[in-house]
Amino acid sequence: MEPLMGVGKAGLKSSNKPDILVVLLPQSCNASFLFTTNHFRSGSVIYSEKVFRKRGTVRALVINSGNANCGVGPEAVLHAEMMAEKAAALLDIDPEEVLVFSTGVIGKPLPIDRVLQAIEDACKLLEPLDLKRASEVISTTDRYPKYDFVKDGKLEVYGFAKGAGMIHPQMGTMLAFLFTNALLEEDVLHELHREVCDRTFNSITVDGCTSTNDSFGLISLGVVREDLQKVRKAVEEVSLSLATKIVEDGEGATKVIKVVVKNASIELKARMLAEKVATSLLVKTAVHGRDPNWGRIVAALGSTPFPIDQNSIRVYIGNHLLYDGKVHSKAVEAARKYMEENSVIEIIVDLREGKSSWTYYTCDLSCEYVRINSEYTT
Amino acid sequence: MEPLMGVGKAGLKSSNKPDILVVLLPQSCNASFLFTTNHFRSGSVIYSEKVFRKRGTVRALVINSGNANCGVGPEAVLHAEMMAEKAAALLDIDPEEVLVFSTGVIGKPLPIDRVLQAIEDACKLLEPLDLKRASEVISTTDRYPKYDFVKDGKLEVYGFAKGAGMIHPQMGTMLAFLFTNALLEEDVLHELHREVCDRTFNSITVDGCTSTNDSFGLISLGVVREDLQKVRKAVEEVSLSLATKIVEDGEGATKVIKVVVKNASIELKARMLAEKVATSLLVKTAVHGRDPNWGRIVAALGSTPFPIDQNSIRVYIGNHLLYDGKVHSKAVEAARKYMEENSVIEIIVDLREGKSSWTYYTCDLSCEYVRINSEYTT
User: Fold this and answer.
1) Span of the secretion signal (chains A, B) (predicted)?
2) Given Cys at both, which of A92, A96, B186, B226 links B182, Cβ 3.0 to 4.6 Å?
């Protein structure tokens, strides 16, 4: 038994394309949902988090694009509830097992009548889940749909997502939904979800701005028993694939940047240093200019609470060693050539003090980003 | 008795303008020095911090522009020491009372012979301290010199600074030196310095990138006894003046942005929220586009560890209320007009939960910033 989907149109997007997606699971499923840590949150996030915390299982998802259902006062939560109840009534399922997600413009109330009608249309015409189509329906400013599928023996993990790296003029939302046929108990599922999320969706950045609507779900369809490591590997693979697609789609992005901090004393240090480099405007503009500017990289590394040994660390771009306590001028030209020729730029920092590492993904900063985000009018 | 200055040229700047400044104080002075918190630090910073921590008083400053004396290995600290000793020998003062500061390109060793010769030239031709000239000599990419002077009865506070908001292609350094004729004991001086620095130089940002060389000195010439509150007020005034000049001079900046978070429950919360808004790329590009985009402001406010009550907070641009749990669409046009017409844009956030407030200064983000910082070649 596969998940089913239905599509509707409430006229929320200026493109006038379908903007309502309903996903119906074969039965009540164990799942794990992670939501934005932003304290300013969409009514849909508030509602879904509350319901899922209470219930713990899920049967259906209702997702709308084109409107974030956010910044409009307490009615936003009421509207999310109405959307869940509408779908539940039509699908004859428990409303407490229906979760609601939104993405789009902040500050405009949902035209709830049109939304409820579109949900009705969607529920009446269910078909097998089509990952590409699902991604398209929930997309706002994505340039291409984001989905992936991994099969390992009997194990299946697949998912669809949206997010174009915060280019939505208000701010981009990342939505990602992964499904696996593996049977996973609640605790195991939550732990796996958190760990994978940390290393994938929580390790990407385009402009460091956290949305009010980000949501990531991992749903266990509970069909086959599988070795946990095998499941983890497949879930990580699909998650990383979707997460990097989001970064690649950052408007104005011409390069993906992979920041690897390795051999740190502790994981938190590796993570903070990687994040600091990945969010540095000076590093991102240097990559945009194909400039192997190690000085900006080390300045970013040095600006967290964690000390660094400036005489011992090593900084590479690609596999070109640029700094190891002293500068390697001859490597600069080779590094520049590497930056011209590759679409993914690896910045590798070796702290040489331990065994922990972290990787953060970002993209370069261009005039296109500034133009897009300064030309939007409220 | 006034401070004296001498100027020299070591050929460190591509403009081939004077790049060595020596300041000689009338006697050993109480002082307070604050340095960058970046763990990757200039040899001059390492040296000066070590010497001052040991000694606690200062008699002379040696400042070079055009070279950060950073990222070149341990010799950088030796070079700083040589510069201090050269000046001390020529001025017949204690070398442990000579502090060294550098600003400029990272990764190039100082041509120490030329530097020492230029220090000699400077020491031989001392004249009364000219704030404007001093600022010019230590400047790298500033578009104009930064200095100010406050007089209140017998009390005098004056200073000079450099810094063009992190536009130096490696990264900008902020140097600021304040002098007062007020007699201040060491403890009082340190506390005053820290408090003023927190609310001024530590509350400005252009691109959130922390330099390897930032230094701020407050020197007490110890001539007149003055009421501490009076001194604090004057020191704050000069510091704020210099700090905002630095933000104004951010390359590509067309607007100064003043982010005020008020009525927070605690000071740290006000500060973190103000800083988050001031460092948000989405807010800075919105200001660049003269777009009164409150949605981006609240998303930034919500993305710190501190919770916010999205139904109770109020967001103003200028004195136009845009959001107070619901949107005020009619205020949008007036706010946009305000943004077109004013060179300083005030974003005011009223949390309505306490009595603490904080102000952060930044500037808008433009294509010019991206262009400057991506066109530099290492």
Assistant:
1) none
2) B226
Chain B (81-100) residues lying within 8 Å, Cβ to Cβ, of chain A: none
Q: What one-character DSSP code corresponds to residue A327?
A: B
Q: What are the residue numbers of the active site of B?
A: 173
Tell me how close the Cα of B184 comes to any Cα of chain A, in angstroms: 32
Inter-chain contact A71–B310, Cβ cutoff 8 Å? yes
21-80 in chain A: CB under 8 A from chain B: 37-41, 71-74
Rounded distance between C-alpha atoms, residue B60 and residue B48, angstroms? 12
Q: State the pLDDT at residue A9.
A: 98
**What tokens appear for B203 in the block?**
């509350």
Structure confidence by residue, pLDDT tens digits, A96-119:
999 999 998 888 899 999 999 999
**Residue B291, both tokens:** 């777009």
A4-248 folds as L-amino peptidase D-ALA esterase/amidase (3.60.70)
Q: Where in chain A is the domain with CATH 3.10.20.340?
A: 256-374
Is B318 strand, coil or helix? Answer: coil
More confident residue, A199 or B141: A199
Q: Give the contacts of B290 (CB within 8 A, at least 6 positions apart).
A: B336, B339, B340
Give ∠ CA B15-B138-B281 in degrees, rounded to 5: 90
Which residues 264-293 of B have a C-beta within 8 angstroms of A? Answer: 279-282, 285-286, 288-289, 291-293
Question: Which residue, among B27, B5, B32, B22, has the nearest Cα to B235 in the 3D structure?
Answer: B32
Stretch among A281-285, A307-311, B170-174, B247-251 having the lowest mean pLDDT: B170-174
Q: What is the mean pLDDT of chain A?
A: 93
pLDDT in tens, A322-377: 999 888 989 999 999 999 999 999 999 999 999 999 999 999 999 988 888 888 66
Tell me where in chain A the CATH 3.60.70.12 domain(s) lie. 4-248
B288:A370 CB<8 A: yes
Q: Is residue B373 within 8 angstroms of chain A, CB to CB?
A: yes
- The first and second tokens of residue A254, run together, are 């011409």
Structural contact between residues A373 and A206, judged by C-beta atoms closer than 8 angstroms: no
Q: Is B307 at the interface with chain A, CB within 8 A?
A: yes
Residue B268, classed as helix, strand or coil, is helix
Q: Is A239 strand, coil or helix?
A: helix
Q: Which CATH superfamily is domain A256-374 in?
A: ArgJ beta chain, C-terminal domain (3.10.20.340)
Residue B166, pLDDT score:
53
Amino acid identity of A163? G
Flag whether A162 is marked binding.
yes
Kindly report, residue by residue over B136-155, the tens digit of the pLDDT: 999 988 889 999 999 999 99
Q: What band does A170 get if pLDDT is binned at 50, 70 and 90?
A: very low
- Token pair recorded at residue A300: 């970013």
Q: Which of B280, B323, B378 lies nearest to residue A291, judging by beta carbons? A: B378
The nearest CA of chain B is from the CA of A261 a distance in Å of 16
> Phi and psi at residue A130, in whole multiples of 5°?
-110, 105
